[in-house]
Amino acid sequence: MTKAFDEDKAAGFGTRAIHAGQRPDPSTGAIMPPIYQTSTYVQQGIGQHKGYEYARTQNPTREALERNVASLEGGKHGLAFSSGVASVDSMMKLFSAGDHIICGENVYGGTFRLFDKVYRRFGIEFTFVDTRDAQHIADACTKKTVAVLVETPTNPLMRITDLKAAADAAHKAGAILIVDNTFATPFFQRPFEFGADIVFHSTTKYLNGHSDMVGGIVLLNDDALAERLQFIQNTAGAVPGPHDCWLALRGTKTLHLRMPRHDENGRTVAAWLAKRLGHERVIYPGLESHPQYALAKKQMGGFGGMISVETGNKENADKVLRRTRIFSLAESLGGVESLISHPASMTHASVPIEKRAAMGITDGLIRLSCGVEDAADLLADVEHSFSVI
Ligand SMILES: Cc1ncc(COP(=O)(O)O)c(C=O)c1O
Prior knowledge:
Blueprint: H1 13-19, H2 60-73, E1 77-81, H3 84-92, E2 100-104, H4 109-119, E3 125-129, H5 134-140, E4 145-151, H6 163-172, E5 176-180, H7 185-188, E6 198-202, E7 216-220, H8 223-236, H9 242-252, H10 255-277, E8 282-283, H11 293-299, E9 306-310, H12 314-323, E10 328-329, E11 339-341, H13 353-359, E12 365-369, H14 375-386
Parallel strand pairs: 2-3, 2-4, 4-5, 5-6, 10-11
Antiparallel strand pairs: 1-7, 6-7, 8-9, 9-12, 11-12
Bound molecules: pyridoxal-5'-phosphate (PLP).
């Protein structure tokens, strides 16, 4: 089971981002962990090998990534998967028919779809609640509740969950707290410090940061739980290839350099949009007008590059989306390049329309992922594109 190196713990975040979990290759001294592009490993005799038997089970490049991100999150164990949703899918296999899970109502649409369309058929029960108020979690708990899953900030409404209060509510019911930390990243938020039991990411986003792979990772502290999930990782087999692990690992080496720039650009663009359109139409946790600004400031070290904007209707949204030059219209987020998207028809199309409407994912809502380009160019781009509404 992959375990973060204890000797990495003392170093600062940036040093761990670059070095944690990796040591020069013992056979050549290569400073970068090699891409172990192999399906199997030669054994000396029956049961005699170097700790590696078959690449679904163990791969040194994958282990380097798992140790690295575990260290950044302050976790003990890391398990990488072939996508963010594959991480969630594998975690669900920890549970059984009859178990009850409480999930934030505004999670990534693919997480909602997996629960609603797949795991409900397997007899797991789900209750979707607004986790901005931890009392909603407490109220939804039953004797069968085994887990509470929250995303904070949420995609795309940028709602904040009080992680400490959510952990307390889950633990009081005998359940575990699972946190999707994809938007904040460990640079800005470390859910284990607030009592989370499992933290996971779509590594496709900020951790990789270069929009050139798809992956997921789960971090844990509890040895027994990590062992059960590792059994599932090997048994169900949703593992990432070594090249994708290597790309993600190359990405995490600059996480501490990229995140402050995403944050700076996010703050600059959000402030301009709020001035131009009115504060009530711009959703960004770093704006003092965000209803949960104080909580975001308390549990996050920065606010990142994700902003949602209410343009009023689909026609307005379409006009803006067609005019942007640097913000490219595409699904995904968290890369060095700025992206813009339409959640209702893209990332959250699988959420029923009435649920979307009740939450505020309207046809006029657009989501910006501010990259790390020059702020002046991003501002010129939004100025140009929003001039039509
Ligand atoms: C917050 C969040 N969690 C999980 C996922 C799923 O990740 P992946 O696309 O890598 O499967 C996404 C994808 O957009 C996401 O935004």
